[in-house]
Design goal:
This protein is mainly alpha-helical and about 290 residues long. The protein is built from twelve helices and no strands. The radius of gyration is 21 Å and the shape is globular. The chain starts with a helix and ends with a helix.
Length: about 290
């Protein structure tokens, strides 16, 4: 139930951002979204406000309120108790039953770096493989290209967006399905599918599903966002850097065999790294 609520909140936020963007005046030189009167920069500002607000609410819901609730329930239990009862109270306070952090593993910095490297290399390779298919992106590439020159849009693309999406699809949808008894792998797949659907086009949706599934497995590895969130942020930062450089144009000029070769090589190099990151994930996924 919580998974559906969180997904609907995210979908509602997207709609609200679109409405807000339509109310804002257009600025000179901005790019319009298709045939609408919504500009890319206004949409970026609206999404920054809406996703930032949603991320804050979800953070309070998932991490702050359970701790406050646990402290409230245990308040006043300072009368004579047995050693066993005292230990249980301490454990309940430190790891509340309703928090997704109650089985968390704090990954070493090396593991985080490997996750970042593996996901970015894999996602870049995947983009090389998808590019020759010429899938429709609904004009999103042009919109992102217009956003990357604006400070608040960069904040959205590189930080606020990834944080909101990880809270929704990993800490929200995936964690809720896992707690409801669904197999970990299936939970990651469902969360990845919902992540792909909200992108609204095939060119972004297919990579979003595959990368989202990887991020879901990383979440299961630790049952927190300490692996998947840095990897998601790094992937978006890399995408922005590519947009701001001439690299994207050079990729478009590559022959099909060149793009496919680069894609396969990058993904092949990333697989051993990702396997090392996900090692030990079976006990969480089963």
């Amino acid at each position: 139930m919580r998974a559906l609520v969180v997904f609907l909140l995210f979908a509602g936020m997207q709609l609200a951002a679109g409405v807000l963007a339509g109310l804002l005046p257009a600025t000179e030189g901005d790019v319009f979204m298709g045939d609408t009167h919504i500009t890319a920069r206004n949409l970026g500002l609206s999404l920054l406000l809406c996703e930032g607000g949603l991320a804050l609410c979800l953070w309070l819901w998932f991490y702050v309120l359970p701790n406050k609730s646990s402290l409230f329930l245990n308040k006043g239990k300072t009368h004579a108790v047995s050693a066993t009862e005292a230990t249980e109270v301490v454990k309940a306070t430190e790891a509340p039953a309703n928090s997704s952090m109650n089985t968390e593993e704090k990954p070493h910095a090396t593991l985080v770096a490997m996750a970042v490297t593996g996901v970015t290399a894999f996602a870049l390779g995947l983009s090389f493989l998808v590019e020759p298919l010429q899938l429709s992106d609904g004009g999103m590439d042009a919109s992102f290209a217009a956003m990357v020159n604006t400070g608040y849009c960069l904040l959205l693309l590189c930080l606020v967006g990834p944080v909101a999406e990880e809270l929704v699809f990993r800490a929200g949808v995936l964690e809720s399905l896992r707690r409801a008894g669904l197999n970990g792998t299936w939970s990651a797949a469902v969360s990845a599918l919902s992540f792909a659907v909200v992108h609204g086009n095939w060119a972004q949706g297919i990579p979003a599903f595959i990368v989202g599934f990887l991020l879901g497995l990383m979440y299961l590895r630790t049952r927190n966002l300490r692996l998947c969130l840095p990897a998601h942020i790094a992937n978006n930062v890399l995408g922005v850097c590519i947009m701001k450089s001439s690299f994207a144009e050079k990729v478009n000029d590559l022959p099909v065999w060149g793009a496919v070769t680069l894609g396969v090589l990058l993904m092949a190099c990333s697989v051993p790294v990702l396997r090392s990151v996900l090692r030990g994930n079976r006990e969480h996924a089963s």
